[in-house]
Design goal:
alpha/beta; binds calcium ion; Rossmann fold; Arc Repressor Mutant, subunit A
Length: 230
């Protein structure tokens, strides 16, 4: 599993029918997402809390805890991970929409895999914000996502694709602290079990290239944030 293959983020797929779960996993993987699967509601809830996925594809009809209840508990916890519901029946759609549980979108079975991937991408685009492509500046560093250019103290800096994605992710939310697990999930599309040292290595490389202009602050015992630290 390379960072390039999963650069669009980790998606947790919660589906108790193995054949459908396989189709969803295959298509999301082809589209560049990292994918983890769970087959029941309680395990899904635990996985969302542990893995911090970028988005969740959530079947409504699940053993244990159904999809609507999983989403309701997440939102009650102030967890706003984007959720795309997969429903089998029209009355489930009414339930999802009627309860105002913060569903980001839904597809009804049978769905085309291409449609589902498009919906996941759409949900992520909306929740990550339309301004994601706007150039932004933190301290002495300006990052232009559309052109994939980084300028530090007036000098353009060459970054690898992963270094760029990590810096862009942090700079999009200046001041906000992210754990290594969150960064692995969001930037690499990895489950945290892969190991969080990867994040430290890339932060060290970024600091090496950006020098004194680096806006990345280490928050001890937590993770990293992008800030104007001068
Ligand atoms: Ca089901």
């Amino acid at each position: 599993m390379s960072a390039e293959q999963n650069a669009r983020g980790l998606v947790l797929v919660v589906e108790d029918e193995p054949a459908i779960a396989d189709v969803i996993r295959l298509n999301l993987t082809k589209a560049g997402y990292g994918v983890q699967t769970e087959a029941d509601g309680l395990r899904a809830l635990a996985a969302i809390r542990n893995l911090r996925p970028a988005a969740v594809v959530l079947d409504v009809g699940l053993p244990g805890l159904d999809g609507v209840e999983v989403c309701r508990r997440l939102r009650a916890d102030e967890d706003w991970t984007p959720v795309l519901f997969v429903t089998a029946r029209d009355d489930e759609v009414d339930r999802i929409l009627g309860l105002e549980i913060g569903a980001d979108d839904y597809v009804t079975k049978p769905f085309s895999p291409r449609e589902l991937v498009a919906r996941v991408t759409g949900v992520l685009r909306r929740t990550r914000g339309p301004a994601a492509e706007e150039p932004r500046t933190v301290g002495a560093v300006t990052l232009d996502a559309a052109r994939r250019r980084v300028v530090a103290e007036g000098i353009e800096v060459e970054l690898t694709a992963t270094e760029f994605d990590l810096l862009a992710y942090l700079m999009r939310r200046p001041g906000r602290v992210f754990t290594r697990e969150q960064l692995l999930s969001e930037v690499w599309g990895y489950a945290a079990v892969v190991g969080t040292r990867t994040v430290d290595v890339h932060v060290a490389q970024l600091r090496g290239k950006l020098g004194a202009a680096s806006p990345i602050r280490t928050v001890r015992g937590v993770g990293y944030a992008a800030e104007d630290v001068r």
